[in-house]
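Request: Could I get any protein with tokenized structure?
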Amino acid sequence: MNEDEELIDQEQNESLRDLVQRWLNREGGE
């Protein structure tokens, strides 16, 4: 795996984590 692919994976993981966090916050807030 080259550095570019690693960077893309990292960005995707961060946005996924962000989506999950937002979903959890919404679920917990209701």
About this structure: Residues 9 and 17 are 12 Å apart (CA to CA).
